[in-house]
Write the structure tokens for this entry.
Amino acid sequence: MLGMFDFAKKAFKHRKFQPMITLIGLITCVASTIFLVLLGQGLGLSVTQITETQFTSFLSSTISQFIYFDTALIFIVGMVVIYFLFTSMMADRQKDVGLIKALGSKENTGYGYVMAEPLLITIYGCILGGLFGLSTFIVYSTIFLPNTLLSQGLTYFCLFLGLLAISFCASWVISSRKAEAFFKNTPVNLFAGDTQNFDFVKEQLTGVGKFLDRLPWILQISLKGIIRSRSKTKTAIICLSLCIFLMTVSLAGGAVAWWTTRSYVDDSFGQNVIAIGDQAVLDEYKNMMTNVLNTKSLSSFNFIENEFFIDRDFIEKLSNIQQIGTIDNRLIIIGHVVEVQTIEIVTDATGSHYVTYGQSNVRSSDALIIGINTNSMVDNLWMQNMHIDANTTIIGSTLSESIFDNPLKQKIALDSNDSNRRETFSISDIVLDPINQGLVVYMPIDSLQKLNSITTHNLVLVKTQDPDTVLEIESLAKQYGLNTLSLDKVHQESLSNIDRIWLSILPFPILSVVTTIIGVLNCLLVSFSGRQHDFGILRAMGAKGNYTAKIVLMESLAFVLPTAITGILIGMLFNFAFLIPNATISAQLLIICISGLSLLLLCICIISATIILKLNKQTPTNLMQDTQ
Amino acid sequence: MSNCAQNNAVETSSLTKEFNFQNTKITALNDATFKIATGEFVVVLGHSGSGKSTLLNLVGGLDKPSSGTIKVCGTDLSTLNDDSLSAFRSLNIGFIFQTYNLISTLTSLENIQFPMKLSNVVNDQLIKERARELLNLVGLANRCDHLPFQMSCGEQQRVAIARALANDPPLILADEPTGNLDWPTGKEVIMFLKQISKTQKKTMIVVTHDERIVELADATMRLEKGRIVNIARHV
Ligand SMILES: Nc1ncnc2c1ncn2[C@@H]1O[C@H](COP(=O)(O)OP(=O)(O)OP(=O)(O)O)[C@@H](O)[C@H]1O
Ligand SMILES: [Mg+2]
């Protein structure tokens, strides 16, 4: 008697194409899921490690959030593709199940015959895919993430085993549930196959039929093929939408997040701003604006040496230059800031009680403190919407997270030069300014001067576009022993630093796009593998090879178009709603993202049509034999 | 492209088809040389596995021979590339297969329309009318909106016959067209094919197991283990 596994092996051997695609699909799917999830974990860790010490907290959380969301989504798509592969494969076994049942096999034994094949595919697919994914990850990460791999080896291994187990269970459960559903059916229904729900009258009544009849013939048969095999189409559409959704989140989300982080840097610099001060002050200032990535430790530079202060005479002469509007005098120092606990009385139904904000063993930090005059500022975009008065400060995002629990309710204390005295300020706002890695306090220049018993300042910002004026300023500054620094250049440097960070995680979105492409391709190939017989008939009737290719292209477009629209739309919404809530993007970027995605999908359709065309380069007789 | 009126409908020489199967060579068709004149109604007989379907597939250009040549309506099939072979089939050959004939997602009417759409008949209305006419001819006028699985095998077979006639091809190849029909219906189908063959001077090659069909044929060809053992012309 033919054993269950013999039966499966024979089925596999003789019906090569379809189980082969399922197996290849499973291998690529498991491999890429494992690779990407491990990589995501690795990148996430290394990004967090780097960013914890170096970035402003906003940058680091945007980036690591992006990575972790993407990782989770890749996992989901992996599962969806597995779901699709196995449901389609089982759907093509419908007739076999019908036969096995009709031959009188009891559910138990028959079940065994039907499930042996998916079991073999599952085992081979998971083992090969797992090994492939793991080894690719090891090679990749020894090159790019050497430290994390060593320190996290065990975590990775557990994660790897977990993923493998989940993939295995998913494949198995999906196919066995499908088989169970089949066995509940009568053999006759099973013979009818995927079209069994077709009802011509209903098709006409709903208007779908009439609409279809009016289309060009190729489109007609493609769409009819899709619509009339409903259950297959449904799974294909769900799977495709999810894949495209991930692609959108990954690509567009990456682009939008990148853009957003850039635009925060943009906001914190003005345009055409020139800084004037002592060369040493300017150097340090520049450093603090650009070191988004360097490992350099925080500045302890003393900004209040006497020689750094700017002469009143100079300011007067400067204000005589025609082209200059506002002169933005600033005092910058490195100071010690301390968390202040606050207590609030809250009255509610249970009566009044106290709520404390902040910790009693106060936290403190060094920070860059910038004294500004709110009446004369060159435009930093974010500052236009914020107000400070003599008793308030605005603090940077990193500072707000490192020494405060609830910064807007708490207060901040600054040491004065008389070390016994501290002064307390309230915090009116938090700003995503990358300067000094987000460890920054903005406050009124008067208050800062008083605190340090200084009456002057050490930095001047002016805004001008005119090159002659720039020259004039330069020569004037020289007379007073001062130098100038064009912030536009510093701005560019900062931006390229941000770009560098994103480029370092670029393989991630690229690879996740590759997985989705593989996923979409798998879906398309699998849905056509069941159609070989039909293509054989078409060829026998005299359809040319590229006629079938056209049908395939039409069908893939018919699949991909609606799913692309939903997937991209939902993906975009998701990006803005969850991933990057305070995104700043331009319409231009949006158009680039969407058209890029669409182009990519079109390519996928063409690739799948080409593959099908290649596979169809057989004689019609071969095509018509399901088992070759 | 081809001219059936002036040539033999089918002309083969030393036609051989071998299959490699688990390292053993199976000669499905062995050195078959024959001629079939235009308008002839030829029946191919033989035991199961004797190579009848193989022969038909080769003549119809669905498969490539291992050696030998086939001329259909004067055109040597080996000179045609894949696309021109398709175009040739579309215009000159109508197929009726042994099993699973129809596109499963198209209704019977749509299945019949298909070959006409392929051969660039432009008028949609004309195509539809002709498809209905053909369905009527095979007695299935009331089944035009059914998918294949909603019809019996015999009905599917008749739709396939109607489809083979759609482009009015000079050569029709039928692989057991009556295999699934009871004798009265089967006979009707055969008579019908024969009548078309006579009135429209179409060449028919019909594979069958049924000896009763022999008496209707102009000629019979007997196959045994891949060899043509006998070609007899009836007068
Ligand atoms: N793809 C194939 N691979 C291997 N052997 C094949 C293949 N197709 C046909 N054969 C063999 O070629 C021989 C002829 O097959 P063919 O299908 O022509 O027989 P037939 O006369 O049509 O039989 P039936 O009356 O049962 O349909 C058979 O022995 C068959 O086993
Ligand atoms: Mg046969």
Q: What stands out?
A: Residues B 52-53, 98, 175 surround magnesium ion (ligand 2) (CB under 6 Å). The radius of gyration of chain A is 33 Å. Chain A touches chain B through 35 residues (CB under 8 Å). The first helix of chain A runs from residue 4 to 14.
